[in-house]
Amino acid sequence: MYLYRSVYGSGEAEYTVERSRFIAHVSPAESPEEARLFIADIKSRYKDATHNVPAFVCGAGSEHQWTSDDGEPQGTSGMPVLKLITGEGLTNVAIVITRYFGGIKLGTGGLARAYTHAASLGIQSARICEVRESALLRYSFDYSYLSKLKSMSEEGRFDMSEIEYTETVSALLSCPEEYSERVKSSISDLTSGKAVLIEEGRALGRYLVQD
Length: 211
Fold this sequence. Notes:
It is a single chain. The chain folds into two domains: 2-126, Ribosomal Protein S5, domain 2, CATH 3.30.230; 132-208, 2-Layer Sandwich (Alpha-Beta Plaits). Helix content is 31%, strand content 40%. It has helices spanning 32-45, 78-87, 107-126, 146-154, 180-191, and strands spanning 2-7, 11-17, 20-28, 51-58, 64-67, 93-100, 128-141, 159-165, 169-176, 196-208. The mean pLDDT is 96.
């Protein structure tokens, strides 16, 4: 079941305009506390920067939102970044835009555009995904089926991880919960019913949004 849109992983991007450097750092953040820890880490890494502008949106309903201009003119930096996040329909994401002033003032409109563009590049680097309830299926199967299962995974039918090699192969398959029966049927057809479903569970999964 679809829950919300977020970012797939960490992202970083840099943008220069009128000799000012804007460095975007983006990360998933499952709670305001996690977002604040990420923001604090980036600020500590860029203590010498002119500004470190943070923003985050958290909660399945985007109910936790916070930003700061960090010394930039009011409304020219933090709010444009926050609006970009919400405009993309993203939540559980934190962003910090670090600026090294290049000596040329950009004006209020220029600042807003620069921070928005840097944040957009950072989000592109982190990649947008859908968070869904996922089925976790741990299978044991003969080595002769491994290559085909890997091919099915690469085709996007499911994610395959935690592969262990003993007398047989065991692997954890994950897919959106609504596709679990279809995946089980595919595995059964491929192995003529010989693959053994060892364990079944549920978790949250991130699935990249195709451009």
